[in-house]
Write a structure and sequence with these properties.
single chain; 717 residues; alpha+beta; 6 domains; five-stranded antiparallel sheet; 25 helices
Amino acid sequence: MATLERIRRRGVFLVVVVGLAMFAFIIGDFLNSSQTYFGQAKQKVAVVDGKTLKYPDFQKAIDQLTAVYKIETGQTGNDEMNEQIREQVWTNFLNSTLIGDQASELGLTVPKEELNDLTIGDHISPLITGRRVFVDPQTGVFSKQALLNFLTGLNQALQKNDPQQADEIKQYEQYWDFWITMVKENTLQQKYVTLLSKTITSNALDAKYAFDRNETSVDMSYVMQPYYSIPDASVAVTESEIKDLYNKQKERYRQEASNDFKYVLIPIKPSQADFSVVEQRINGLKANFTSATDVASIVNNNSDSKYINVPMTKDDMPPFLQDFAFNGKTGDVFGPTLENDTYVMAKIVEAKTMEPDSVNIRHIFVAAQTDTATTVLADSIQKAIKGGADFGALAKKYSRIQQTAANGGEIGWVREPNLLQMGFNQSLANKIFKAGLKEIVVDKEPQGIQLIQVTEQKNMIPKVKLGVIAIRVIPSDATREQYYNQAKQFAAAATSLSNFDATAKAQNLIVHAANQVDPNAPQVATIKNSRSIVRWVNDNKVGSVSDVLECGTQNDQLIVAAVVAKHEKGYRSLEAVTPDLKAQLITDKKAQMMIKNMGAAMTTAQTLPALAASLKLKMDTATNLNFYSNGAGSLTNEPTIIGAATASQANKLSAPLQGKMGVYVFTVSNIQQRNDPFVLQNEEESLNSKQNYMLPYIMFQVLKDKADIQDNRARFF
């Protein structure tokens, strides 16, 4: 009983304790589960019609496309390239989702057999045949054998599972997987577009109407009263009229999320001291450069650009070097001289010689079981050619490059840069262009021996081989610090929107406006590597002023920005579009006034010259107009007026018509009919071709507009 009494006395306390314990249990369980929920929410890069793109998947696609770019271009990523890759991944995801959903509903697929045929079969997609990786370096064209060799090598490497090659193998695996996916999705899109195109076709009436409109042309005489002849202030527009027009045209003002901001830009430029440092450096190189026999080494060790071991034409070099190069002798040195922001010094390595601009070449590539057997075979073929044997027949019989062998070894006409692009080294390219007609150039490679013959030469022109040291002047750390301090002083003084412009003016800085900037924009205007500005604006409130932000290719652009406005996804506000609506209403009211006045004047002035005299307007003409004309003479961008003129009767005064620039009255003359034969099939095909050309773009825009898209990329990048 005593125990029960103690429980009763402490009942309220126990209820509270138990309640808190239960609450702690429940809320703890909720928080544990919600950690996963909110964590997943933070991972959402986008949601498109219910399909979620999570950050790990987005990043995986970015890594894959980065590998593709690296293999395709041989370049590692920079900020600009990374932005392009992210944008392309986003576009691919949208395409795949929007069109994939539509195709799925229609039952469209790309079966495994079809995909195999498009990637390694008899109907390989241009997406595959256009890849540099699968091009025969000897012919410069796609080689199915090169493709199969790539896949065989990749498969063997995957099976070998060598840890030292794991990263490289992964890149090539990503490369192939990417193009498989692209072929599949591109084929699916083509099927969808083809199916859709069958529902949007021209009929006989469309074809005849379009044909007739193109057959008729007219000359037009007209008068036009411009809208500016009536002052805007004399036209009254009410708020209710503006609001009514806004409601009627609201769909025109649909907008995506965007930001308005302004900024000052302070470019970092080299000081005079920086120029002096580089000038002293290049002057110090002149003695060694003049006496050097190994010009390539001294250029490569000191110049911003590498030595080019290829004779150059005048068109290949800048104008300021041309007179020196083509009038000097071997060993002559030019400069140093300052060109823009670069000090340049040049040396003639090989004086002017006459070489062909282009040559026609053919080749035989031989490879036997052993190096010795290959050498013996190459020697015997070379002797046979010198003895008068048919080069083409020998190429067909012995050359291992099937694409050219089938054509007698013909490569065709090439310029020296073409050879370098095709994989020929500089030394071999030089030999080919210095070779005489019918001479055989022998090239020994690890894979075999190549016999190259020059059959024709075209356009013998002078060429010179130069060694050029070019050193660009860049701002020193001390110079950069001076500009940075200037930007810091501005940022410290411009503390709000209200004094941003005044502070800039006091410091002789220009304020730039950036309006309706997409939160995912890769850069601001033409400023390289300026995504950081867009990110800063995304993350800050209206009225905020940034610290100094570094942009530009070499971080040589300093920016201070201020957030002016933020626009949510949806519709532009009435206030934002009021100036445009008011201008439109004023124009329409002016047109109504002019139409009324012109109509009254036309009761007595019943010819165009009389009307022009009555209204004190200038008469003008436009000739040879048809329904599809953009304009003629001073009449431009007036489709309503041109369309009405081509459908008018001759020598009949038109009613006043509202155009874009003013109100027009016209007469037409010289109506000409071309009387071309009407071929229904041709006209329908022409119309369908125009429609099908625009269909993929229009289709994607419609799907995009109708989709529920939550784009959160700006949170991540």
